[in-house]
Amino acid sequence: MSVQDQIKQHLKNLDALLVAHYYQRDEVLELADLSGDSLELAKKASLSPHSLIVFCGVAFMGQSVKVLAPQKRVIMPKVACCSMAKMIDDEYFDRSIDTLNQAGIKKEDIFPITYINSNASVKAKVGKMGGVVCTSSNASKIFDYALQTNKKIFFLPDRCLGLNLARKNNLKSCVLGQASKEEIVDSAVICYDGFCSVHQLFTTKDIAFFRQRYKDILIITHPECDPSVVAQSDFVGSTSQIIEFVKNLDPNQAVAVGTEFNLVNRLRSGSKNTFVLSSTIPQCPTMNETTLQDVLLVLESFTQNKSDLFKSMNEIIIPSDVAKYAKIALDRMLELSK
Ligand code: 13P
Ligand code: SF4
């Protein structure tokens, strides 16, 4: 039996749902029951009738499903860690709040928004402070809500998304660690200094190159790109929004897309006018860790009940107090993005 057929057989026997983010390898995405951007996957996987979720993506994505649907078992063929999510933990979160306090901003005057690309423990800190989670597809809505509170927004961990949102709303912003006390006090939006190493690869030089070569080309980027790149883009959106936008264009329209390679490569396969907005291959190493063989292995281990090793390696387990407060921040996001 082929690897694909063995996986299908295990999924059927276990009544499990195979979930894959758009950045996964083609071989994994082709087999998935459910694919999408991070918001769609969190929502749809947690609401699915399946009690076992096999999540192919990065750790914070599997965690979000577990937090939203604690009754489900969530296993990941590779518990790969998004490098941006790794840039902040609860200690760094506390230290950031201390820095804001030292600048004269009281805790009760801070509204924290954490990008979904963060660990459950950071989401829990944000939930405890009355803040909320956002993703690239609902960030504007969440930001609008935060503005109504008249508090200072502390946006984490992605400085680019935070700065892009501030710019869109004509708000003063700064980056913690780079800004002076005065600048912090003066800013409506204070961003943590995290970033996505993959989306940093796209530059305004790349945009200039494509605009010079192809007269009417459209530049399409993800909001994790640097503000200078986003400012020069014709369309900015989440992974799903990018796919939808390109799908609805005239097939002859030239586009250069600034997001992860696997997604852009799929878009490219149907069109000779679709380009990767980079001279290098912008591949997310952690998203690419999961192979079909890993999916099969995790299903075999689960079936054979290799419990101790398996639980520590592949199953998402979240301490109950962390899960409780992380759920508050995630539920608030789902409510606000309806
Ligand atoms: P989406 O929310 O657009 O799926 O993005 C997730 C991500 O990690 C982008 O780098
Ligand atoms: Fe994280 Fe960037 Fe990979 Fe997205 S592309 S999962 S933000 S490292």
UniProtKB/TrEMBL annotation:
Keywords: 4Fe-4S, Iron, Iron-sulfur, Metal-binding, Pyridine nucleotide biosynthesis, Transferase
Keyword Transferase: yes
Any GO MF annotation of the entry: quinolinate synthetase A activity
Single biological process term from Gene Ontology: 'de novo' NAD+ biosynthetic process from L-aspartate
Record Pfam families: NadA
Enzyme Commission numbers on file: 2.5.1.72
Cofactor: [4Fe-4S] cluster
Keyword flag Metal-binding: yes
Pathway: Cofactor biosynthesis; NAD(+) biosynthesis; quinolinate from iminoaspartate: step 1/1
Coiled-coil segments: none
GO cellular component: cytosol
Name of this chain's protein: Quinolinate synthase
